[in-house]
Amino acid sequence: MISLGWLLVLLPLAGTLGWFLGRRGGERRGGARVSRLSATYFRGLNYLLNEQQDKAIELFLQIAARDRETLETQFTLGTLFRRRGEVDRAIRLHQSVISRPGLSDEQRTRAILALGEDYMRAGLLDRAETLFADLVKMGAAAPQALRHLMSIYQAERDWQQAIDHARRYEAATAEPMGRLVAQFECELAERARIKGDAGLARQHLGRAFAADANSVRAALLEGQIELAEGNDAAAIRAYERAARLDLEFLPEALPPLLAAYDRTDDPARARGFLLEMVERYPGVSPALALARRLEQESGPRVALDFLREHLRQRPSIRGEVALIELALRSDTDDPRGLLVSLQQINEQLIVRSPGYRCQSCGFGARAHHWQCPSCKQWATIKPLPHVAAE
Predict the structure, then answer these.
(1) pLDDT band for position 153 (50/70/90)?
(2) Higher model confidence: residue 48 or residue 347?
(3) Which terminal Cβ of the chain has fewer Cβ within 10 Å, N or C?
(4) Mean pLDDT throughout 148-156?
């Protein structure tokens, strides 16, 4: 199946062919040359479809040599050269296009954009930046040039320039750029934090939240800064916010958050947040944290009962290890009940764990299939020799 990248190359080629045949059909009475060129063109397309780039380039070069006015063919060749890593050839080709007399503004702009992309591919970011900046000043193809400039400034870690150009891109296209701007502001906040300037770091975090009120990274970084400054209450608010914004980041927020809870001596708040996370988070981390807190406050028996009931609903090997440790500390008088609980947990683990996985696409299955239901490959699903499966 042809990739999206090649499709983007082939579409202008098809347009060029239609234009070329139409123009030649009107200008030339003899159809032999048109037939030869069209046949050559279709052969080139066929080579591209079959991933034979060398032969395709050879044929398109023949077309370009026979009719040097076909700019679309020149642009397509430049794209092919760049994709193959022959950046020097792409640069020379696009430079020659730019130097042509009689180009329209649209054609010259397109050639400059292509040359800038060549420079980026070659790592000549300063040259690419100059070309794209000139296009922005002229107002020609500004959105494309602005997007390329954003990529350059990210590569150069010039975050303020990246922010400025993201805002200009947003104004030119109405495409929201807040989430990206928030990342750039977080980069500046991180830089200020490392330098020990907590005030400047907070300013950048304020701008990050203004750009993206749901920035998990900004919330985590805020917690880190407040924790380093000894502001445990502020750190707790920041880490709780991060976890609520995106539950998948709870493992990142939980260790420093638990340390801050311990220093502020607010057990009710800690229990309330952990209970909320136990309900919402699919993993076992908040349940283990709550069990440890219950053990400290009410003793190992209470923690053991809580964790045993939780693991019956959501079995976990990590949780099972913690349960055994709790049982050893609690000196339980119901060893049979504990063994029954462990048996139930292990049964659930076996049932829920995939016993087979596709070596091609990673599809997990509980029963064997000779043909993968996901990627349709044959004989790629094999047994998993892990603890829960075997």
Answers:
(1) very high
(2) 347
(3) N
(4) 91
Given a cut of 60, is residue 298 above it in pLDDT?
yes
Lowest pLDDT segment from 17-31, 88-102, 168-182, 279-293: 17-31
| Distance, first Cα to last Cα, the chain | 38
Both tokens of 26, joined, read 């009107």
State the pTM of this model. Answer: 0.68
The tally of CA atoms less than 13 A away on the side-chain side of residue 9 is: 26
Class of domain 176-265: mainly alpha
Q: What is the pLDDT of residues 118-141, one digit of tens each?
A: 787 877 888 888 888 878 877 765
Please state the domain extents for the chain.
Answer: 176-265, 277-352, 355-390
Q: What's the chain look like in SS3?
A: CCCHHHHHHHHHHHHHHHHHHHHHHHHCCCCHHHHHHHHHHHHHHHHHHCCCHHHHHHHHHHHHHHCCCCHHHHHHHHHHHHHCCCHHHHHHHHHHHHCCCCCCHHHHHHHHHHHHHHHHHHCCHHHHHHHHHHHHHHCCCHHHHHHHHHHHHHHCCCHHHHHHHHHHHHHHHCCCCHHHHHHHHHHHHHHHHHCCCHHHHHHHHHHHHHHCCCCHHHHHHHHHHHHHCCCHHHHHHHHHHHHHHCHHHHHHHHHHHHHHHHHHCCHHHHHHHHHHHHHHCCCCHHHHHHHHHHHHHHCHHHHHHHHHHHHHHCCCHHHHHHHHHHHHHHCCCCHHHHHHHHHHHHHHHHHHCCCEEECCCCCEECCCCCECCCCCCECCEEECCCCCCC
